[in-house]
């Protein structure tokens, strides 16, 4: 999907249902790929409006311009293609050769002209979409190492890693898109993912977190070594996600929202 094609996928607003007879990993992967398409469409709409001055302006990430964020999203797509190649071939392919190489590629790419930045992002997103579309169904069940923790995971998680990356960094571009713009199924998934990042971490204060979704549905979790006496933090799901990911202060939440350690 290119920038020119983005407007044509407006109707893709629901997750793909599980094909009859297919396993849960395949269903998760197909739903994730549909969510990636929606997220990419939203990303294209924002990036298409960024001129040279806007791209050189600061993002919400310390030390990174918006051009850094756009370049990072392109390199992330290529890195996740490496993981899908691992799933397809059974031969280990890490996301990046090293963190230093990753950072150098981002710094180099961030200096490009707007049209080259957009072309790079477009091509990388297309490579990821093609790799996901062409991966055999059976390969989605193959095991890979999580790119951050190294913990074994199913290849079906790779599309959801891309969904998280696109939406969170779309917010980081600071161009009017917040977590309240997320489709509710994606908001639900990313909240559970963010909470999971804090599981079993001794540096996380004990507390109970409750998120209220736009449809009135509620979900709750316990962080740290929470017990019945631990404090509660409540709020709208988008505000809770912003706080958990370090993109919002927690001022809109009920209760005293502590400063959390870095989530990733």
Automatic annotation (TrEMBL):
Record-linked Pfam families: MDMPI_C (PF07398), MDMPI_N (PF11716)
Molecular function terms, GO-annotated: isomerase activity
Spans annotated as Disordered: 1-25
MDMPI C-terminal domain sequence ranges: 182-262
InterPro entries xref list: DinB/YfiT-like, Maleyloyr_isom, MDMPI_C-term_domain, MDMPI_metal-binding, SCP2_sterol-bd_dom_sf
Gene3D superfamilies in the record: 3.30.1050.20, dinb family like domain (1.20.120.450)
Mycothiol-dependent maleylpyruvate isomerase metal-binding domain boundaries: 37-173
Origin superkingdom: Bacteria
Keywords assigned: Isomerase
Protein name (record): Mycothiol maleylpyruvate isomerase
Species annotation: Saccharothrix yanglingensis
Lineage of origin: Bacteria, Bacillati, Actinomycetota, Actinomycetes, Pseudonocardiales
């Amino acid at each position: 999907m290119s920038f020119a094609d983005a407007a044509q996928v407006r109707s893709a607003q629901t997750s793909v249902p599980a094909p009859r007879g297919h396993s849960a990993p395949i269903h998760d992967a197909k739903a994730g790929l549909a969510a990636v398409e929606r997220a990419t469409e939203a990303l294209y709409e924002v990036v298409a409006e960024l001129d040279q001055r806007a791209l050189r302006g600061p993002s919400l990430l310390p030390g990174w311009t918006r051009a850094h964020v756009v370049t990072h999203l392109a390199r992330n797509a290529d890195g996740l293609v490496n993981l899908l190649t691992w799933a397809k071939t059974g031969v280990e392919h890490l996301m990046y050769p090293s963190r230093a190489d990753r950072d150098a590629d981002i710094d180099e790419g961030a200096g490009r002209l707007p049209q080259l930045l957009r072309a790079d992002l477009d091509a990388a997103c297309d490579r990821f979409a093609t790799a996901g579309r062409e991966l055999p169904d059976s390969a989605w069940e193959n095991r890979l190492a999580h790119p951050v923790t190294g913990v074994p995971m199913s290849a079906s998680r790779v599309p959801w890693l891309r969904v998280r990356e696109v939406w969170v960094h779309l917010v980081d571009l600071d161009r009017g898109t917040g977590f309240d713009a997320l489709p509710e199924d994606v908001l639900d998934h990313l909240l559970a993912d963010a909470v999971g990042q804090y599981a079993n971490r001794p540096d996380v204060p004990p507390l109970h977190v409750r998120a209220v979704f736009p449809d009135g549905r509620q979900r709750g979790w316990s962080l740290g070594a929470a017990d019945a006496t631990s404090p509660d933090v409540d709020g709208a799901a988008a505000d809770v996600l912003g706080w958990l990911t370090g993109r919002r202060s927690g001022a809109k939440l009920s209760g005293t929202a502590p400063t959390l350690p870095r989530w990733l």
